[in-house]
Amino acid sequence: MRQYLLSFPLISLYGGLIKNKKIQNESLSLKNKRRANVYWPAGKNRNKLPGIYLQHGMSILGIDDQRIIELAENLAYCGFSVILPELVEVKGLFLKTETIDHIEELGIELSDNNSWYDGKRFGFFSVSFSGGMGLIACSRPKLAERVSSIMAVGAYSDFLDTFPFVFQNYDSDNYGVLVLFYNLIERLEPKLASDLLPVFYEAAVDNALLRTKDAAKAPALLKKTKKASQDFYHKATTSASFREEIAKRMLGSYDISVPKAFSPYYNMNGLKAPVSLLHGETDPVISPKESEKLARYFHEKGHKFIFRTSSALVHGDQLPLHTQIAGIPPLLQTFGSFFNWLKN
Q1: Do residues 334 and 140 lie in contact, with contact meaning Cβ atoms separated by under 8 Å?
Q2: Full strand arrangement of the beta sheet holding 149-153
Q3: What is the pLDDT of residue 7?
Q4: DSSP states along 18-37
Q5: What 3-state DSSP class applies to 240?
Q6: What is the pTM of this model?
Q7: Which alpha helices (H) appear in 59-209, and where do they start and end?
């Protein structure tokens, strides 16, 4: 019952039952010139509150994305001090193993900094690809000792499975495919990369910013490229069989140790904190089966966790709760467990 009570304010916010949340925020400068914003309930002393390190996902807007700001404010409303730092490469849509190192570095830095929370109760929260990489970072010895509770929404378990799934669901949500092409086109088609790198980047940004028709930048850039580049882009965005072939080629171009280095399934032996896993039932970017694999892993290891899927989520984005009543209990259970483990 406690977990339901702890998360009820959050669900009430998303459901529109609470209209006037009073949240304070402040900007901080971290090491390596990283930006960060802190959010906490107005009238509260943030130095006495449990802290949540909220890592943003692959959004070109970074910590200025209104969706992540709303999540930070809503978590803060539930009685937490929430810090939202920006990772330049994640904002730049780069998938790099060094991001795992950066999340670890940030986690250590933030847990040592008691100017923004009580210095004792420290949680980690993230989504999607950042959620998977965060699970690895929180498994490393120096950070594992500091984290009290972890929550991952729409995260992945094994990059070897996630990669082809993203390509298979291009017609449902093409953002992930565009990001992967942007990251891997140099390796896949080095002769076309100088043409296609900016095109795939702008195509992903067009998607993220909802730029269409005359506002979209990728089509204009594509017209300036050579015919071979235009042909490749056309096939990549219209042919499912071509994308399937490309996915296999991309995976085959790497030693298996590379995708494994990205995969929580192979890198979580040192994890200590309990984990709350939440996944959208119809997530078109990362399959719910990925969180199922994580749950099986934790079950086999005897690790404390909770796993739920919800019809109220797509890929980290919430649907109107009044249309998805059946999806509310899983949200209450997972968020509530994350809060409970963090506060105790």
Answers
A1: no
A2: 23-29, 35-41, 81-85, 51-55, 122-127, 149-153, 275-280, 305-310
A3: 64
A4: -----EEEEEEE-GGG-EEE
A5: helix
A6: 0.92
A7: 66-77, 88-91, 98-112, 128-137, 141-144, 159-168, 175-188, 193-208
